[in-house]
Hints:
Layout: H1 4-13, E1 27-35, H2 43-62, E2 81-88, E3 93-100, E4 106-109, E5 115-117, E6 138-139, H3 147-150, H4 156-159, H5 161-166, E7 178-182, E8 185-198, E9 201-215, E10 220-223, H6 231-235, E11 239-243, E12 255-261, E13 271-274, E14 291-293, E15 295-300, E16 303-304, E17 322-324, E18 331-333, H7 335-348, E19 353-354, H8 356-362, E20 367-369, E21 381-385, E22 390-392, E23 399-402, E24 407-410, E25 412-413, E26 426-428, E27 436-441, E28 446-451
Parallel strand pairs: 3-10, 4-9, 5-9, 17-26, 18-25
Antiparallel strand pairs: 1-2, 1-12, 2-3, 4-10, 6-8, 7-8, 8-9, 11-12, 11-27, 13-28, 14-17, 15-16, 15-21, 18-26, 19-20, 20-24, 21-22, 23-24, 27-28
GO biological process, one term: proteolysis
Protein name: Peptidase A1 domain-containing protein
Pfam families: TAXi_C, TAXi_N
Amino acid sequence: xxxxxxxxxxxxxxxxxxxxxxxxxxxxxxxxxxxxxxxxxxxxxxxxxxxxxxxxxxxxxxxxxxxxxxxxxxxxxxxxxxxxxxxxxxxxxxxxxxxxxxxxxxxxxxxxxxxxxxxxxxxxxxxxxxxxxxxxxxxxxxxxxxxxxxxxxxxxxxxxxxxxxxxxxxxxxxxxxxxxxxxxxxxxxxxxxxxxxxxxxxxxxxxxxxxxxxxxxxxxxxxxxxxxxxxxxxxxxxxxxxxxxxxxxxxxxxxxxxxxxxxxxxxxxxxxxxxxxxxxxxxxxxxxxxxxxxxxxxxxxxxxxxxxxxxxxxxxxxxxxxxxxxxxxxxxxxxxxxxxxxxxxxxxxxxxxxxxxxxxxxxxxxxxxxxxxxxxxxxxxxxxxxxxxxxxxxxxxxxxxxxxxxxxxxxxxxxxxxxxxxxxxxxxxxxxxxxxxxxxxxxxxxxxxxxxxxx
Length: 455
């Protein structure tokens, strides 16, 4: 439940919006940059921070709750993610968003009265959208079909109760405000239809949230999930692809490209696995947002990790299975998967002692002391998918150097408190996808990938 102070804040500032608003080509390419929200942290702090928020992200992905006001899922993003810039409005106002394949709603910080609690200091530099400066900004009406994209649990009559009670055909009632609740915070505001100005085309009447407050979100969220309100869905894209530049844990302004194709062309030299059908579970609509893939096996070196089948395939309650999530940093494995994966590394890594001190400092395990060694040989980690495709991860994608090049830690996380698994069992995070070209073939329901240097 939202705190009473958050709710009062929402109700007190929601009215501030109203004075400010009056009631191609086939390929779209957008720069994609690594988002570092706190460049002043040392490496121990960064790794611990990323591990903690990867776990927080996993908690909410695995236990999605439909809000009493809106059921759009959002998660904490004050860890390392990837950002894009999208210009909204007439004339355009450039807004920064975190690119998130694990949700679908798009929202930006809005109006000069926007408030963000517990947000990183660096996020205060991000601009807020000013509706009164855009001639194309319009508040979403309650009878607009897009209102039901946000409030899926409500009937048209309950959304437009004022219109129904007055029995009028010229209803000016707005779509009810959204207030999205998530574990460490919230965001709330009014839905708009606005012009999205892409490099080679304009998208009119794009549904976007004008958030008046949020908590722990360093920027707006651009949902690239499978819901109706996501960027690919609103653009009617046939494919979504991107290549994630390497995490350097610094503030280097390096970027790659995110590509949306509205006309389908077959890609070359990719390994593919089917995108699986999402589980449909009453009260857990967020499961429909995710990109499920059929991970069938994990190998560490030559050892096949024994993973019980119930972890690999979603059951009728939506528990189990694997999703690909750009908003998660370190891959999450349910406890019953993580332990045998970790043990496989511990058994095969010879000549290096465990560093329990660094495991406590980073919240990562296992960590190995490699000081005094010029070369380090470690078992290769592979993900094996339905259809026979294999993702062989480079060492830098699953181990990170800690301290003065003398300790390395496995960059995957689990939570021993979640032994009775709910939701996806495996969440493939962006750290493991560094320097991979990945493609969501939305037309043919396939997930493709190949290893390459992203630039």
